[in-house]
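Is adenosine-5'-diphosphate placement plausible here? Inputs below.
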Amino acid sequence: MSTSTADAARLPLMLTDLRLPTIKRLWTDIAAQSDREAWRAERLLSVLFEHEMAEREARRLARHRAESGLPPDKSLDSFDFAAVPTVSRPHVAALVEGDAWLEQGANLLLFGPPGVGKTHLIAAIGHGLIDRGWRVLFTRTGDLVQRLQAARRDLRLPAELARLDRFDLLILDDFSYVRRDQAESSVLFELISERYERKSIALTANQPFSAWDQVFPEAAMTVAAVDRLVHHSTIFEMNVESYRRKTAATDTSPRTRTKVSKRK
Ligand code: ADP
Ligand code: MG
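Reply from A.M.:
I modeled the complex. Tokens:
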């Protein structure tokens, strides 16, 4: 066996050992091109490593997107900013591109009645942040509260909070959806305190702060939670007509028309 045949036989094993799957997949083609075009060794090496790094980054983003729990189909491209005059596209783009607020653990709070696009907008921002390398977790507030309560019962609350710490942004959808009892609001309060000035929270809420005494049973806890959330925050007030209702009313597609006429 010639030296080069022996090398070619050993390479796949070494590349597996070194966990370089992309180079392992591509090296024969790229090496052939390199031989044909008489590349210098440094050119060949950097082309191989560039491929490995690009795929590694793509896999990392895919993993982050999968773990995020974000609704997959909500993007900034499909968000109609004209429908929400209080929220500007440049402001949202600045949040997606500006890293300072996440580094400081600042918060993002979206208020408005049902159907105005709060979940869509925050999910789209979440996707944009993942594209830029941040880690994001999207969850309905009620689901997270149940998980934290279960963790507290099993004396695992600190571990569960530490697990959430991996995420640069925690999105709590429908924060004020239900009235919470003492135990529920206390885990939520603990979460807010734990992340305060360290890790960002984004939330959507149907109720303005003035109605949050319905969310937390204790006035003192409400004040303390609101204080921490608002201290470093961007607030979007989305008090517009429900997008869902508006589009249902103006949609003249045949399917909708059929549905409407059937209802008569
Ligand atoms: P909310 O969370 O405020 O109740 P959603 O984000 O769930 O509202 O929006 C309801 C539906 O309307 C979703 O399908 C969403 O994609 C769509 N929608 C709402 N606002 C907009 C908008 N400004 N542009 C595009 N789609 C929108
Ligand atoms: Mg919503």
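Short version: The domain at 81-241 is CATH 3.40.50.300 (Rossmann fold).
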